Every structure is written in structure tokens, then in C-alpha cells.
Amino acid sequence: MYNLYTKFVKILEICKQFSENLVNESGNVPRRGPVPKFSDLEVVALSLTAETESIDSEKWLFDYKLQEYKDCIPNLISRRQFNDRRKKTAGLCEELRKRVAMEMDGGEEQFFVDSKPIEVCRVARGKRCKMGRTGDFSQAPDFGF
């Protein structure tokens, strides 16, 4: 599944499945005003798709990555509209995540989560530090552990 559009469609189907009473029939959170062509569920699905691809830059997503799929996604909104609507639908996105997590929970005690690696600590003085340079290294851990 290397195709961004394929991932978008699959995530959109999952969002539709778990958004029973959160959105109306067109996939939007009920509010006054004109009905947008690109629904709120599609905004959430595109946001989640970008997260699964580890795309942090909306500029890169819209200027380069989504240019290949303009024919497949005809109602694609601009980057500014995407950012505004993504902020407005943050609650919807979080509720969908909770519902998917509750469905996945089968009574397991341990879960493996794949996410971005975050640097917890850094060995800043490791190469200059003289402490522990001499001695028996047969049972010592590798550098950084």
C-alpha cells in the first residue's frame, strides 16, 4: 500500500464506519452555512493519511504529494482551508481515534504502538568523557545503553 490515494480511501472508509452519530449523511459535522464539497470526514481521513505517511509539512503534502492524485480527488481543498478545517475537526478526529481503539481492544494487556521516535536523551559528553575508559569491558553495555 504505497499509494497515498489508496490509504486515503481505506482510512476514509474506516472513518465512515466509526462516525455513526457524529456526522450527517454528507460526512460533515452539523453546522450552519453552505455544505462544503470536501467533507469533514475527508479532512480527518487526509490528516490521518498524512500522519501514517509521516508527512509533517502540509506544504510538501499539497504542493508535491497530492499533485499526482488531483484527478482522483476532484474536490480537494486548498492548504489554508485544510489547516483551518483540520483545527475545527480535531475533536471529531480524537473521538474517531477513541472509537477505533475501543473496537481494537480485545482484552489484551499489552499493546504495541508504532509512532514517531522521540529522542529521550542524548549522550553529549560521551566521546570526551574519560571516566570508565580503562577496565574490563566484557560485561559493559554498548555505547549509548
UniProtKB/TrEMBL annotation:
<protein>
    <submittedName>
        <fullName>IS982 family transposase</fullName>
    </submittedName>
</protein>
